[in-house]
Design goal:
The protein is an alpha+beta fold. 36% of the residues lie in helices and 20% in strands. It has 8 helices and 8 strands, in the order βαβαβαβαβαββααβα. Strand 3, helix 3 and strand 4 form a beta-alpha-beta unit. The chain is globular and about 55 Å long. It starts with 7 loop residues before the first strand and ends in a 5-residue tail after the last helix.
Length: 241
C-alpha cells in the first residue's frame, strides 16, 4: 500500500534501468515512484594500476589515443553506472577504450590492482582506502568540486570536461500514490537525521557525502539523471534486451 510504510532505497542505477532494460523493466522510475529525499552520494573515480604510465586525465587520454582499443577499462557490469560513466568519458574524450564488464565493482577493482586490466571507473566510497594505500592510482574525479575524501585528486570539470559530473547516489522513494503529507513528513525526518553531525561523520567515514534535499529537488535531480543516461544509452547503443 502507498501509505508511507514501504520505502525503497534507490541508487544511481534506478534512473538508468528504464533506458537499459527496455523490455524487462516492469516499472518506470519516474512514473511508478515518488521522490522523498536524496540521502548521500560519492563521485565516480577514474582509477588505474600504479604501473600505468599516466599521472593525469590528460596523460590517460593520450595513452588511449596512442593505443586505440587496447586499454582495458573495467566496470561493475553491463549497463551499470560505472559502465555508463566510462562510455560518457569515451564520448567526451574521443577515445576508444575496451570495456570489460565484471559482476560487481569488487572484482573489477581487484583486477586493476592485480594488473589484469589497466583501469576502472568506480564510486569513491569503495576504493578510497586502496587509493590512499597506493594500490590504485586515482587520476580524476567525476564530481562538481574536489571531494574531501581525496582532496588532491582533480575533477573532470577542472580539466576541461564540465559535463562529466557523475556520482553514485542513494535516495529514498515511495509508491507514486503515497499522500503528499506523508512524503513531506518522511522528508523532514530524513533531512533532520542527515544534517546531524554524527550522521555526516558516519557517512563520510564510509566514503559518502550527506546530501539532504527536498522531495522536489530530488525529483528534479532524478529526471535530469534519467535524461542524461538515456542519451548515453542511445548514443552507445547498449541494451539488455
Amino acid at each position: 500500500p502507498a501509505d508511507g510504510y514501504t520505502l525503497l532505497l534507490a541508487d544511481a542505477a534506478f534512473t538508468i534501468n528504464s533506458s537499459y532494460y527496455t523490455k524487462q523493466a516492469h516499472y518506470d522510475a519516474l512514473k511508478s515512484f515518488a521522490p522523498v529525499a536524496l540521502i548521500a552520494d560519492t563521485p565516480y573515480l577514474l582509477m588505474a594500476h600504479p604501473g600505468v604510465p599516466a599521472a593525469t586525465r590528460k596523460d590517460f587520454i593520450a595513452l588511449a589515443k596512442a593505443q586505440p582499443g587496447k586499454i582495458n577499462v573495467g566496470s561493475s557490469g553491463n549497463g551499470s553506472g560505472s559502465h555508463l560513466v566510462g562510455e560518457l568519458f569515451k564520448l567526451k574524450a574521443g577515445v576508444n577504450l575496451n570495456h570489460i564488464p565484471y559482476k560487481g565493482a569488487g572484482p573489477s577493482t581487484a583486477d586493476v590492482m592485480a594488473g589484469q586490466i589497466q583501469a576502472t571507473f568506480a564510486g569513491a566510497a569503495g576504493v578510497v582506502a586502496f587509493v590512499k594505500s597506493g594500490r590504485l592510482k586515482a587520476l580524476v574525479a567525476a564530481s562538481a568540486k574536489r571531494t574531501a575524501l581525496l582532496p588532491d585528486v582533480p575533477t573532470f570539470v577542472e580539466s576541461g570536461f564540465p559535463d562529466m559530473v557523475v556520482t553514485n547516489w542513494y535516495g529514498i522513494v515511495v509508491p507514486i500514490k503515497t499522500p503528499q503529507n506523508i512524503v513531506q513528513r518522511l522528508n523532514a525526518e530524513i533531512v533532520r537525521v542527515l544534517t546531524a553531525p554524527d550522521t555526516k561523520t558516519a557517512l563520510f567515514n564510509q566514503g559518502l557525502d550527506a546530501a539532504p534535499s527536498t522531495s522536489q529537488e530530488f525529483g528534479t535531480f532524478m529526471r535530469a539523471e534519467a535524461i542524461k543516461w538515456a542519451k548515453v544509452v542511445k548514443s552507445v547503443g547498449i541494451t539488455a534486451d
